[in-house]
Amino acid sequence: MSMSTGKLTKIVLLVLGSVGLYLLATHQHGQREAIRQAAVALTPACVEKLGRYGLARSEHYQSPYALQRTGASIAVQGYGEDDVRAIQRGCNIIDDTQGSLAKDPGRERWNAPRFIRGTHVSCDHCHQGIGDKQDVAGNPLKGSLSLGASWVMADMYDRFTGLLSPFEFRQMQCYINSSNGYKPNIADDVIRDVTAYSRFLSAALELKIGNHYDEQGIDEIPASATPKQGDDYVRGEAIYKKKCANCHGPQAFGLETNGRLVAPALAGPNAWNMQSRNYFYYVSTILPGFICRNMPLGEENTLSNQECRDIAFYISNLPRPAGDRQGPLVALQQQILMTVLPPLMRLTKSAGGSEVTAERVLERDQSRP
Ligand code: HEC
Ligand code: HEC
């Protein structure tokens, strides 16, 4: 008899709790749907890029880029309103992952920063030109981590892990390692929209599925492509100071002025972690390849293979977050190094070194076309 009141309360509480959770889930589901339906405020760079590629709702799509370059273009299936908005959001996420150009960053970027620990990372820092880097004549560039050319590879054997890795997995991997964060769910809108955008890029550039293009991935530089002098920390440090420090900061922790990022962190708490393919001791060919083809910004392709390897070796020796494979002790050690080293280095810095001011960097930034 009296057992019933106690038990009943428990059951009622359980049912109420479940109903509450259900209502919350429905509410959030509805909110996501509302975001999917909402008009998209594009970043200025995405206005330019998607405008140039003629993204619009229509039954057929013909690439203005291909038409202009080859005099012909193939009509493919076009895009509905939902597709157009997904592509637009995807472009925004690559261009401005942290949402610094958005009115409501959480909503407009599907909370992408939630998956990233640092405050600097934007996909576009490495996947430059919003994942579609070109020279002034509109030619794609070798080793520029193109997202369109990556999408047409669809499923790809990853030579480091040996796994068959679809485009979505490769995105997830980049959140974990190159962005030092957490992986979004494979079906999360943040992944789906970037896939929609990358797929649109491949249509706009008329890339063929299954083909490999030079702009996919990195133009890797192995030790065998240098005069066998070995990779040298001291040499790397010297070149870094001369060619990179004015933008990326004296300790490569990145440089910000008035809340505006001059150049992202290559080391320290805001940088990619020890499990990123940018990390020299994990894969020694990728970072030198990135540097040689894509840096120093505005003077790309001016460094020798040896110089790029030396700088990469130096940068990778600076303290940075541990990756998901290093374990808690290494993570702690890296945290301590990242906290202790910068002030120590400032203390020991010789007074004679050329002082880098943010003003100088900005001057240089503005004089760039
Ligand atoms: C610090 C540099 C860096 C950042 C930031 C970065 N990536 Fe990457 N990304 C890389 C590198 C390096 C690779 C691996 C290239 C390789 O293995 O050849 C890669 C690979 C990829 C690939 C697979 C490309 C291919 O052709 O196989 C995708 C997709 C991708 N990244 C998406 C993203 C997204 C989305 C973001 C933002 C959340 C992002 N990346 C941020 C450096 C970066
Ligand atoms: C004129 C300023 C400038 C100079 C000089 C410069 N960088 Fe960068 N670097 C940038 C900017 C800005 C980005 C972000 C990508 C973009 O906006 O194109 C970047 C991105 C990078 C990235 C990928 C982003 C990341 O988080 O890892 C690496 C690696 C890098 N630079 C290395 C170098 C190295 C090495 C040098 C020297 C050889 C160098 N940079 C010189 C401005 C500069």
List the helices and strands and how they pair.
Blueprint: H1 3-37, H2 44-52, E1 58-61, H3 64-70, E2 76-79, H4 81-95, H5 105-108, H6 128-131, H7 147-151, E3 156-157, E4 164-165, H8 167-176, H9 189-204, H10 233-243, H11 245-248, E5 255-257, E6 260-263, H12 286-294, H13 305-317, H14 327-348, H15 358-367
Antiparallel strand pairs: 1-2, 3-4, 5-6
One heme C (HEC) is lined by residues 97, 121, 123, 125-127, 145, 150, 156, 167, 170-171, 174-175, 178-179, 194, 216-218, 272, 277-278, 286.
Q: How would you characterize this protein structure?
A:
Helices cover 47% and strands 5% of the residues. With 369 residues, it is mostly helical. The protein folds into two domains: 37-204, Orthogonal Bundle (Cytochrome Bc1 Complex, Chain D, domain 2), CATH 1.10.760; 223-367, Cytochrome c-like domain (Cytochrome Bc1 Complex, Chain D, domain 2, Orthogonal Bundle). The protein has a two-stranded antiparallel sheet with strand order 1-2. The protein has a two-stranded antiparallel ribbon with strand order 3-4. A hairpin with a 2-residue loop joins strand 5 and strand 6. Helix 4 (81-95) crosses helix 9 (189-204), helix 10 (233-243) crosses helix 13 (305-317) and helix 12 (286-294) packs across helix 13 (305-317). The longest helix is centred in the N-terminal third of the chain and has 35 residues, at 3-37. The relative contact order is 0.09. The structure holds heme C (2 copies). Residues 97, 121, 123, 125-127, 145, 150, 156, 167, 170-171, 174-175, 178-179, 194, 216-218, 272, 277-278, 286 line the site of one heme C (HEC).
